[in-house]
Amino acid sequence: MEKSLEINNQTAIQIAGPTASGKSALAVKLAQLHNGEVINTDSMQIYKILDVLTARPSVSELKSAPHHLYGHVNPGDEYSTGHWIKDVQKIQTDIQRRGKLPIFVGGTGLYFKALNGGLSNIPSIPTEIRDKWRGKLETDGIETLYSELKRLDPESAQNLKPADKQRITRALEVYDATGKSIRHYYQNTGPTLVDTSTSKKIILLPDRPTLHERIENRFTKMFANGALQEVEHLLTLGIDTNHTSMKAIGVRELSAYIKGLMTQDEAIERSIIATRQYAKRQSTWFRNQLDSDWLRITNI
């Protein structure tokens, strides 16, 4: 593996992979070896409060190399991929101006698509329109929203599962805000944020038994190291349950434990199961969506 990770005149490093695959440790190692600075490429690790529950880099890792875009967003604030792109453009320019190597690390596929020019250029959705459709989802249910999408944008509706709350709501928001189908924007991609020809691209894909063991051990430590207290803090903020920050794995399960709806052991076990399922989805996405230019590493 050491030979395959040689960095020669690369202008950026990208490290993708499922949760608990060892991305953060590898990013720090490469940052120390190649005068690099780490940029968060994970949509959950952006939020304040959720340090432990989203498995942000440890204190020692944060001290070992400069890190950017970790825990900089309030949990109740909106933060889209578009916001992340704008932040990355500023930070990457500054890193390169100082002669350092940007190292992107995380598990969010859309962020990596954005880096490599494969993300649809969808306009920002006004807050009032976003709130309108989220409110309708709460009051009217997904069946009503799906029927509305079939009326307004039948092509998009045909390509979505009737129970897919997130994508159906998103399609309605885009149509309401722009008057155009979300599929119109899928045909037009935004600019590349990195030079793909000189970027070292790595996917970490440990075997399933190894990943499952890491996930179980890690979540047990999370619970012992303050994950429950983070969720208690989050619940005091009165954030809408549909907000992205409230969908961090473990929030729903530990909330149920706090409210007396399940035991501690049940909350931990269900959180571990949910994390394993998420890791499987991530692994599948990375295998299928990232091309052969990406170095696949299984023995880390």
Q: Could you explain the architecture of this structure?
A:
- The protein folds into 3 domains: 10-120 and 192-206 and 291-297, Rossmann fold; 127-186, Histone, subunit A, CATH 1.10.20; 208-281, Crystal structure of tRNA isopentenylpyrophosphate transferase (bh2366) domain (Helix Hairpins, Orthogonal Bundle), CATH 1.10.287.890.
- It has a 6-stranded parallel β-sheet with strand order 3-2-4-1-5-6, sandwiched between helices.
- The relative contact order is 0.17.
- α2 links the parallel β2 (36-40) and β3 (67-68).
- The protein is globular.
- The protein is an alpha/beta fold.
- It starts with 11 loop residues before the first strand and ends with a strand.
- Helices cover 50% and strands 9% of the residues.
- The mean pLDDT is 93.
- It has helices spanning 23-33, 59-64, 81-97, 109-115, 127-140, 142-152, 154-158, 165-178, 182-186, 208-224, 227-235, 251-258, 264-289; strands at 12-16, 36-40, 67-68, 101-106, 199-204, 295-297.
- It contains 13 helices and 6 strands.
- α5 (127-140) packs across α6, α5 packs across α8 (165-178) and α10 (208-224) crosses α13 (264-289).
Largest sheet: 6 strands, parallel
Q: Count the domains.
A: 3
The percent range for strand residues is: 5-15%
Oligomer: single chain
The whole-number mean of residue pLDDT values reads: 93
* Annotated CATH homologous superfamily of the largest domain: P-loop containing nucleotide triphosphate hydrolases
Task: Give the CATH topology of the largest domain.
Answer: Rossmann fold
Low-confidence segments: none
Number of strands: 6
- Could you give the order of strands across the largest sheet? 3-2-4-1-5-6
The coarse silhouette is globular
Structural classification: alpha/beta
- Rg, Cα atoms, Å: 20 Å
- Helix fraction? 40-55%
Distance between the termini: 8 Å
Per CATH, the architecture of the largest domain is 3-Layer(aba) Sandwich
**SSE arrangement, N to C:** EHEHEHEHHHHHHEHHHHE
Helical segment tally?
Answer: 13
Question: Could you name the CATH class of the largest domain?
Answer: Alpha Beta
